Amino acid sequence: MDFTHFDAEGNAWMVDISGKDVTRREATACGRITMSEECYGKVKAGQMKKGDVLGVARIAGIMGAKKTSDLIPLCHNLNLTGLEVWFELEEEACAIKAFCKAKTTGKTGVEMEALTGVQVALLTIYDMCKAVDKRMVMKDVRLLQKSGGKSGDFHA
After folding, report:
1. Cβ atoms within 10 Å of 127's Cβ, excluding its own
2. Out of 127, 133, 140, 153, which one is annotated catalytic?
3. 127 catalytic, yes or no?
4. I need a surface site. Which of 54, 120, 144, 146 has the fewest CB within 10 A?
């Protein structure tokens, strides 16, 4: 198997995308954080001392996705055309599911941006809630779908 981020001598390098076609690209990722019943209740009721947990986590996820190339070595800096972050509350599991959809028109995909947006949103929830529950668990972060580019569409 050929690894695209290494040259013939095994040195890491950024893949040259200059010859690729510009296409519309989109990716959606998700992940979840589980927490204690007390913590979940406070988040849902907007009673966390640090403020609006999901509102802050939404902005953090967007900001994180925009900074992906600063965080992930060899990741291209993209001109993002759209970012959405949203949440689903899972009452029985005392969990919050985070989603991030990233869009661009360019020469490389936005999967890493969508995944980074989800993880930063989850980390922000953890940070804002850790005074109530340090046992929270972030898990199941994954790509749900992507479209555009040479490899075509993917649906989990």
Report:
1. 14
2. 127
3. yes
4. 144
